[in-house]
């Protein structure tokens, strides 16, 4: 599935960047192949416009903010937060300003991030109740650009068969390649998946999970939020919860912005934020290395025929089915890469 070719994907909220980043002036971002610019309006709320001036097409992100408006850096034309052209500095004061605008997009601030929806959203931003629960702390773990498809990251995080191999140097046990089974319940937003996984407990993991046993049983209650957010809720026998919330924000086909937040019901004195970042950095680097080696076009329909599967791929297969249903509900067909069509023809 080429994400830039499926308009229905524009109807979801995506985490774009930390709100603090906008204190440095207008910031560019590309969402689903669409260049946008984010900036703070007069009330300090985030605004998002197409990153293109209607005069000579310069990127508005090259400009600066003035009284909550954005000023084009080329000739100074000025737009308000809704994209309306409000000032042409070359015109005499009494001359009316043409009715022109830059396209504006919906924004929200949630969990310390600015979220953008390019078209009317089909559902709200995924709820994370722990964010407002005083028993939990929020840690901003990662904000990195990866060369892979959003669906690859999503299915990888529900794939119990990769731990023993990809994570053999962290928590995986290469001698235990048989994956544990997931109990999956489909929901309106995607699905919930529950499992018990036994993982290796190297010395640092003992601090993370609050146990000194060589192995720990993780109780995982995970959620997939269509299309590209996931929540991994790990509970250790110590009662420590390690809840990772991840967005694979699609920049373009085969390119994602990985946003990772962590919620923990312990304190900085138990395990510092930096230790938690370092621990998960080693794990996510293992995932990244292998995911960037996969075909960036994670196909949802023909992928069922081209790629081979095993029972533990069920969460990923369900994602493909639900995404395909979503396309069909909105009168879209999957737009595949030409080479996939060719390899399928060659197989038949
Ligand atoms: Fe923006 Fe001229 S290109 S003001
Ligand atoms: Co992994």
UniProtKB/TrEMBL annotation:
<protein>
    <submittedName>
        <fullName>Aromatic ring-hydroxylating dioxygenase subunit alpha</fullName>
    </submittedName>
</protein>
<keyword id="KW-0479">Metal-binding</keyword>
<keyword id="KW-0560">Oxidoreductase</keyword>
<keyword id="KW-0411">Iron-sulfur</keyword>
<dbReference type="InterPro" id="IPR017941">
    <property type="entry name" value="Rieske_2Fe-2S"/>
</dbReference>
<keyword id="KW-0223">Dioxygenase</keyword>
<dbReference type="Pfam" id="PF00355">
    <property type="entry name" value="Rieske"/>
</dbReference>
<dbReference type="InterPro" id="IPR050584">
    <property type="entry name" value="Cholesterol_7-desaturase"/>
</dbReference>
<keyword id="KW-0001">2Fe-2S</keyword>
<dbReference type="InterPro" id="IPR044043">
    <property type="entry name" value="VanA_C_cat"/>
</dbReference>
<keyword id="KW-0408">Iron</keyword>
<dbReference type="GO" id="GO:0051213">
    <property type="term" value="F:dioxygenase activity"/>
</dbReference>
<dbReference type="GO" id="GO:0051537">
    <property type="term" value="F:2 iron, 2 sulfur cluster binding"/>
</dbReference>
<dbReference type="GO" id="GO:0046872">
    <property type="term" value="F:metal ion binding"/>
</dbReference>
<dbReference type="InterPro" id="IPR036922">
    <property type="entry name" value="Rieske_2Fe-2S_sf"/>
</dbReference>
<feature type="domain" description="Rieske">
    <location>
        <begin position="13"/>
        <end position="116"/>
    </location>
</feature>
<dbReference type="Pfam" id="PF19112">
    <property type="entry name" value="VanA_C"/>
</dbReference>
């Amino acid at each position: 599935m080429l994400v830039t070719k499926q308009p229905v994907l524009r109807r979801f909220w995506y985490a774009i960047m930390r709100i603090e980043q906008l204190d440095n002036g207008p910031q560019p971002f590309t969402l689903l192949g669409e260049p946008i610019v984010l900036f703070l309006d007069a009330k300090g709320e985030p605004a998002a416009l197409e990153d293109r001036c209607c005069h000579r097409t310069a990127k508005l992100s090259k400009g600066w903010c003035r009284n909550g408006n954005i000023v084009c850096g080329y000739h100074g034309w000025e737009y308000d937060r809704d994209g309306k052209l409000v000032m042409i500095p070359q015109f005499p004061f009494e001359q009316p300003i043409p009715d022109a605008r830059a396209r504006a997009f919906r924004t929200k601030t949630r969990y310390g991030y600015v979220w953008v929806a390019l078209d009317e959203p089909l559902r709200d931003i995924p709820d994370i109740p722990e964010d407002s629960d005083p028993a939990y702390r929020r840690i901003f773990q990662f904000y990195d650009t990866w060369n892979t498809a959003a669906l690859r990251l999503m299915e990888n995080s529900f794939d119990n068969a990769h731990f023993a191999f990809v994570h053999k140097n962290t928590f995986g046990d290469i001698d235990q390649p048989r994956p544990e089974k997931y109990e999956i319940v489909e929901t309106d937003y995607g699905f919930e998946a529950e499992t018990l996984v036994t993982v290796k407990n190297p010395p640092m993991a003992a601090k993370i999970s609050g146990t000194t046993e060589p192995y720990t049983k993780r109780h995982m209650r995970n959620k997939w939020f269509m299309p590209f957010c996931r929540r991994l809720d790990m509970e250790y026998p110590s009662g420590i919860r390690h809840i990772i919330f991840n967005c694979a924000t699609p920049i373009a086909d085969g390119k994602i912005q990985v946003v990772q937040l962590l919620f923990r019901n312990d304190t900085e004195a138990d395990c510092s934020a930096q230790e938690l970042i370092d621990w998960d950095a080693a794990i996510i680097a293992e995932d990244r290395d292998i995911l960037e080696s996969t075909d960036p076009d994670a196909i949802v329909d023909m992928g069922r025929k081209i790629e081979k599967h095993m029972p533990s791929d069920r969460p990923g297969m369900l994602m493909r089915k639900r995404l395909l249903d979503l396309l069909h509900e909105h009168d879209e067909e999957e737009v595949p890469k030409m080479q996939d069509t060719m390899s399928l023809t060659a197989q038949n």
